[in-house]
Specification:
24% of the residues lie in helices and 21% in strands. The chain is of the alpha/beta class. The strands form nine sheets. The chain has an eight-stranded parallel β-sheet with strand order 15-12-11-6-3-1-18-16. A six-stranded antiparallel β-sheet has the order 21-23-24-30-26-27. Strands 22-25-29-28 form a four-stranded antiparallel β-sheet, with no helix packed on it. The model has no long low-confidence stretch (mean pLDDT 94). The longest helix is centred in the middle third of the chain and has 21 residues. The relative contact order is 0.12.
C-alpha cells in the first residue's frame, strides 16, 4: 500500500476482536521493551547468575541495530507473563529510516519494519498475547516523522522566532508513505528545537533531525491529523491492538491530542473494543498533563462535542523523586507531597487520568546529560523495593525491560540505557533468567497484586511511624522508614521498607484501628515468614493500632490483615 486511500477500515473479515472486558487498565502491569533489544530469532539459553547482570552490547553495538525481532518476543512471551506482567508496550514497529534502531524515525506508516519482522509476525504476537490474557500496546509518534527530507543544500536549520524555512528536497524517491505525506506544506519547516521547554518552539520545531508536522489549527495541520488518525485506526483493525502510548505529547496541541484520542477510541468501540488504553509521554508538571488528559469541550471551535483525551500519562514526577527515596538519599516525605499533588490534579480530570502510569526506568531518562538506570549503583534489594513500590502504590505500574535482571546501564547517551537482553557476539546466550533473585521477587509480588483487589482498587495512606509506640510521626529524615497502606473496605495491605543501607530499624507502624478491631494479625506477603501481631495502645485518649517490625538494612516487608 502506498496511499491512505488503499486502507480499509471496515472490520477485518473473520477476525474476532478481543474485548477484554474483565480487566480495567489500572489493573495492568506493563512490560515495556525495545523490539531491537529484547530477543532475536536464535535459540538461546540464559546466562547463569544469581542476582544481577549488566546486559549485553558495547558502545558501538548499542548505537545501531542489534537484531531483536518480533519473533524473538513471540518465542519468549511466557517469560514476560511469568514475571507477572499483564500487558506489553512495544517500541514503534513501523518502517524506519535505515540508520534508526529505536523506531521513532518513521518513513512508512503502512508497513512493519522488515528488520523487526512482518505484519503477520506482529499480528501473531498480539493473538498469542491475548491467548495468555495479556494486552499489547503500540508506541506511536504523531508530532514528527523520520528524516525523510532536508533543508536547502542539506544544511541544518534551528528554530528562530517562528521563521518558516524553505523546503530542500526529499531524501528518497518513494518515501514517506502514505504518499499524501509527500507534501512540503504539511511540515512546519521551522528548524530544530533548541529549548525543549520554550513555547511555541517546543511545538513548532523539529525533533532533532526528525521533521515535525504542522502543528496548529491550519487546514494543512488538520489534514495531517486526519491522515494519522486513519493510519492508526487501520492498525487497530489489522492487529486487534489494545492501546497506544503517544510519544512526545507536550510537543503537540491539547486540541489535536484530544481529537485523535476521541476518534481512535470511537473506532475501537466500533469494533467492540471497550477498553482501548491511550496514555502519553508528557514531561512536565501535573498541570501540563491535565491539559491532555480527560474531557475537553470544542464548542469554541464550532463543534458542540466533548472530546476525551488521554486515559493517562506517564508519571515523570514520581520517577524523578522515587530513586532518591528508595536509595535513602531523600526523605519519604517527598512522596507524601507527590500524592497530595496527584490528589489535587485528579479532581480536575475525573475518571480519565485519576491514575497515572508509574515507572522506575525508561529508554530516554529525559532531562539528564548522564543517563543511568535505577540499577546503577543499586543493590538488588533496592531494585526489588522500587518495583514493589510501583506494584503496591496507586497507579498502573510499568517495568522497563532488563530491570528485572538488574541492568545498570549508564553513560552520556540513550544507547547506554538500551542494553541487549541477548548477546550480539554469539547466538547462544541471553539473560532471560527466571531464577535470578530480582526476577523471582518481582514475580512473587506481582502475582500477589494480580490476585489482590486491595492493591488494584484500594485507597492509599502514607503511614506514621514511632520508635516508642507512643509518639507517631510522618517521615522527616532521609533514612526514615517508608511505610504506606492500601485499604479496600475491610482489607488492608501494608508496605514497609527500610531505605537505610547500614542501619537496623525497630519501629512501630500505624495501621487502621477501626478496620483492625476484629483482626489480631498481619500475614506476611513478602519479606517475613511469621505473622505480625496488631497491637493496641493502652491510652484511651489516643486509641491507635500499630505493628512492630524489626527491619534489616534495605529490608522490604509487605503484610495483609486477616
Amino acid at each position: 500500500m502506498k496511499s491512505i486511500n488503499d486502507i480499509d477500515l471496515s472490520p477485518k473479515p473473520g477476525k474476532k476482536y478481543w474485548k477484554n472486558g474483565h480487566r480495567e487498565w489500572r489493573e495492568e502491569f506493563i512490560y515495556f521493551l525495545l523490539v531491537d533489544r529484547f530477543h532475536d530469532n536464535n535459540k538461546r539459553h540464559s546466562a547463569k547468575f544469581d542476582s544481577v547482570h549488566p546486559g549485553f552490547g558495547d558502545e558501538a553495538q548499542l548505537g545501531k541495530l542489534c537484531g531483536g525481532t518480533l519473533r524473538g518476543i513471540i518465542t519468549h512471551l511466557t517469560y514476560i507473563k511469568d514475571l507477572g506482567c499483564t500487558a506489553i508496550w512495544l517500541s514503534p514497529v513501523f518502517k524506519n529510516n535505515p540508520e534508526s534502531y529505536h523506531g521513532y524515525a518513521i518513513e512508512n506508516y503502512l508497513e512493519v519494519d522488515e528488520r523487526f519482522g512482518t505484519k503477520n509476525d506482529l499480528e501473531e504476537l498480539v493473538e498469542m498475547a491475548h491467548e495468555l490474557d495479556m494486552r499489547v500496546y503500540l508506541d506511536i509518534v504523531l508530532h514528527h516523522v523520520g528524516d525523510n527530507w532536508c533543508y536547502p543544500n542539506g544544511n541544518e536549520y534551528f528554530y528562530h522566532e517562528g521563521t518558516e524555512f524553505p523546503f530542500g528536497e526529499w531524501r528518497y524517491p518513494d518515501r514517506p508513505v502514505p504518499i499524501e505525506l509527500r507534501n512540503p506544506a504539511l511540515y512546519g519547516r521551522k528548524g530544530q528545537i533548541r529549548n525543549f521547554d520554550a513555547y511555541p518552539e517546543t511545538r513548532e520545531g523539529d525533533f532533532f533531525s526528525l521533521k515535525a508536522f504542522k502543528n496548529d489549527e491550519s487546514r494543512e495541520a488538520i489534514y495531517v491529523q486526519k491522515l494519522l488518525t486513519a493510519i492508526h485506526c487501520y492498525w487497530i483493525r489489522e492487529l486487534d491492538i489494545d492501546g497506544f502510548r503517544l510519544d512526545a505529547v507536550k510537543h503537540m496541541g491539547e486540541l489535536s491530542i484530544s481529537r485523535f484520542c476521541s476518534y481512535v477510541r470511537e473506532y475501537a468501540y466500533s469494533l467492540g473494543k471497550k477498553n482501548f488504553f491511550l496514555f502519553g509521554e508528557i514531561v512536565g508538571a501535573d498541570e501540563m498533563a491535565s491539559k491532555y488528559v480527560g474531557s475537553r469541550s470544542l464548542a469554541t471551535y464550532n463543534d458542540q462535542n466533548i472530546y476525551y483525551g488521554l486515559n493517562s500519562a506517564l508519571d515523570f514526577q514520581l520517577h524523578f523523586l522515587l530513586e532518591g527515596v528508595i536509595k535513602g538519599k531523600d526523605s519519604p516525605h517527598k512522596l507524601i507531597e507527590r500524592y497530595e499533588e496527584l490528589q489535587t490534579n485528579a479532581l480536575q480530570r475525573g475518571e480519565y487520568g485519576e491514575f497515572l502510569v508509574t515507572f522506575l526506568d525508561n529508554h530516554d531518562q529525559i532531562g539528564n546529560d548522564f543517563k543511568h538506570r535505577f540499577g546503577h549503583d543499586a543493590e538488588p534489594a533496592q531494585i526489588i523495593a522500587g518495583i514493589a513500590f510501583l506494584l503496591c502504590a496507586l497507579g498502573t505500574p510499568c517495568i522497563y525491560y532488563g530491570t528485572e535482571q538488574g541492568f545498570e546501564g549508564c553513560g552520556k547517551g540513550d544507547r547506554y540505557i538500551r542494553e541487549c537482553m541477548f548477546n550480539p557476539n554469539d547466538k547462544n546466550t541471553n539473560v532471560l533468567n527466571q531464577q535470578s533473585e530480582i526476577y523471582k521477587a518481582i514475580s512473587s509480588i506481582a502475582k500477589f497484586r494480580n490476585e489482590s483487589n486491595v492493591l488494584k482498587f484500594g485507597r492509599m495512606f502514607m503511614r506514621e511511624t514511632s520508635k516508642d509506640g507512643i509518639r507517631f510521626h510522618l517521615p522527616e529524615c532521609h533514612k526514615c522508614l517508608l511505610a504506606f497502606s492500601r485499604i479496600l473496605y475491610d482489607q488492608e495491605v501494608v508496605f514497609v521498607f527500610n531505605s537505610s543501607t547500614s542501619d537496623v530499624k525497630e519501629e512501630h507502624i500505624l495501621v487502621d484501628c477501626q478496620l483492625n478491631r476484629k483482626h489480631k494479625w498481619m500475614k506476611p506477603v513478602y519479606g517475613l515468614k511469621t505473622n505480625v501481631e496488631i497491637l493496641h495502645s493502652e491510652n484511651p485518649a489516643n486509641p491507635v493500632c500499630y505493628i512492630k517490625l524489626y527491619l534489616k538494612p534495605m529490608q522490604l516487608v509487605i503484610l495483609k490483615n486477616y
